[in-house]
Structure formats: C-alpha cells, structure tokens
Specification:
Layout: E1 5-9, H1 27-42, E2 47-51, E3 62-65, E4 69-76, E5 79-86, H2 89-101, E6 106-109, E7 111-112, E8 119-122, H3 125-136, E9 161-166, H4 173-189, E10 194-199, H5 217-230, H6 242-248, H7 253-265, E11 270-278, E12 281-288
Parallel strand pairs: 1-10, 2-9, 2-10, 3-6, 4-8
Antiparallel strand pairs: 1-12, 3-9, 4-5, 7-8, 11-12
Helix pairs in contact: 1-3, 2-4, 4-7, 5-6
C-alpha cells in the first residue's frame, strides 16, 4: 500500500528522555518528537524506513541495509540507550532493484555474518534517535553491540521492521529524489504499512563550537529550509547553493530530497511541528500523512 506516514526528524541525542531529563537546550524539539512518535504509533507500521547521513558511507552509491537485524548504542554524558531490532531484507532488496531501474547506484551493506540474514547493521545516532521516537521507546540494555546475542523473545513487545539507507553526496542530487520514488513505489506494490523518515539536522555553524566555527550562512540556510518545508516545497532545496550548504554545515539536504521523491509518488501534506537551535545546530520536526 502507499506510504502511510513520513517525517523530517532530527537526530540530536539529547532529545531522548532516557538520556537527558531537560533535553539540554532542545525542549521544544523533544515535545515535537514525542508527538511524532504518537503519530507513527497510530500508523501501525510494518516497516520503518530511515534515511540518515551518519551511517555506512559508500562513495558514489546509496548504501542500503541488507541484514537480518540492526544494533547500536547512543551515549549522552554518563547514560546510554541501546537498540537491537529486526531489519527487513525483502523490502530493502525490492528497493535496491527498483532504484537501479532508475540508474541510482545502490550498495547493499552489512556486517558480521556472511549470510545476510545472519548479519548486522551497525546503527548510528541518525538512525537510533528517530527510530526510538517513531517505533521503540525502550532501552535494550546490553544488546546495543552488533555482535550481542539477541534473545528469541526480543520482538514480543512489537514494533516495525527497519530499513536504513545513507545517501552519497557524490551522486547528483536528482539521484536522491529518484531513490525516494523507488521506496514509495515498492511500498505501494507491497502489502506493508511503511513509514519514511528523513533523518536530518540542519546548520551546524550557529556558534563557535568544539567541532564547527560560526558562519553567518547558518541562519540564512536554516531560514530557507524552514520556509521550504512550511510551504511544502522541499523539492526546491535541490537548488541550494553548494557553498552555502558547506558554510552552514548541513547534513539534511540529501535525505530531505529522498522524502521529496517519496512525496512525488504518494502526495502527503506537511504539518510543521518545530524548529529549534540547540547550542550550535538547528533541528526541524515535521510530519507528513496522506
């Protein structure tokens, strides 16, 4: 069936309540993410598809999970949240096949076992944070290592199967839109209830920080992105100037263009929930439902 829900979600680790009581400068974002979680729970998903910027990078290819499960841990100060969840290889394979029909190069990736069904995807924070809010909201203590033994009854609490993709910035931006179309077309041809999340943080240069230097482009780029999302025209970001994007140090453009491709196949109006700068980087929460 068609994609049943979509979102632009940040991946700031401090937003997970188990890691920070105060959200450390991102209270509005946390409340918006909790609302996102309620909407995704109500959508009763079979599959959650997340496109994020920080997972396995394969130059000139979109990397796509080809594993039986995914596992990872996020840390904030002295606390941690761990996930170990089932992945959907059949859906991922169908997306890879469809994307290649559109001349989008796809690298199917995994770790550990040589049999893909027994291998693992190392989940990073750009997958774990939105997945926690949208699907799991538990801490699987002791299971966040990709080689951790996974109890047979771990799925008893329910939750969707996961698929994870990571774009390559070396590909033409149009390839991301084509990839998103492939995801939506595979979903429409399947009997699964599929949700799609573009995991995106935006400008990282709002102030001098331990990793980035201040740049005036941060405010300009975030304002343009916010307006494009509010106007329900995320596809317009395909023309964002490369130098501006670099000076603002955004990591959301490529995943957002995948969502634009999804929306070309399954039109979904936007509900813009929040924009907030937490210390040095901007975070946006928006949901989409047909």
């Amino acid at each position: 069936m068609p994609i049943v829900i979509g979102a632009i979600s940040p991946h700031g680790i401090r937003t997970i309540p188990l890691l920070s009581e105060s959200a450390d400068g991102a209270p509005n974002t946390r409340q918006a993410l909790l609302e996102l979680g309620r909407r995704f729970a109500a959508a009763n998903l079979d599959i959650l598809f997340i496109s994020g910027p920080h997972g396995i990078r394969v130059n000139n290819f979109v990397s796509l999970s080809d594993t039986g499960r995914g596992a990872g841990t996020v840390y904030w100060r002295d606390k941690r949240v761990e996930l170990n969840v089932p992945m959907d290889r059949e859906f991922a394979q169908a997306v890879a096949d469809k994307a290649r029909e559109y001349d989008v190069p796809v690298a199917q990736v995994g770790f550990g076992g040589t049999n893909p069904s027994q291998s693992v995807l190392q989940l990073d924070w750009s997958a774990i944070v939105p997945a926690w809010f949208a699907a799991y909201q538990i801490n699987m203590t002791g299971l966040g290592h990709p080689l951790a033994d996974r109890p047979a009854d771990i799925d008893s609490a329910g939750g969707p199967r996961l698929v994870v993709a990571n774009p390559s910035r070396m590909l033409p931006r149009e390839s991301n839109i084509a990839f998103g179309r492939a995801v939506a077309e595979v979903a429409s041809a399947s009997g699964n209830r599929v949700g799609f999340i573009a995991s995106c943080d935006w400008s990282h240069t709002h102030i001098d920080s331990h990793r980035f230097k201040y740049h005036a482009a941060a405010k300009e780029v975030d304002a343009r992105v916010v307006q494009a999302i509010k106007d329900d025209k995320i596809e317009s970001l395909i023309d964002l100037d490369d130098e501006l994007a670099s000076n603002a140090a955004i990591d959301g453009l490529w995943q957002a263009l995948m969502l634009a491709g999804v929306k070309q196949v399954t039109p979904m109006p936007v509900d813009f929930l929040s924009y907030e700068v937490a210390e040095y980087f901007g975070m946006i929460v928006a949901t989409y439902q047909p």
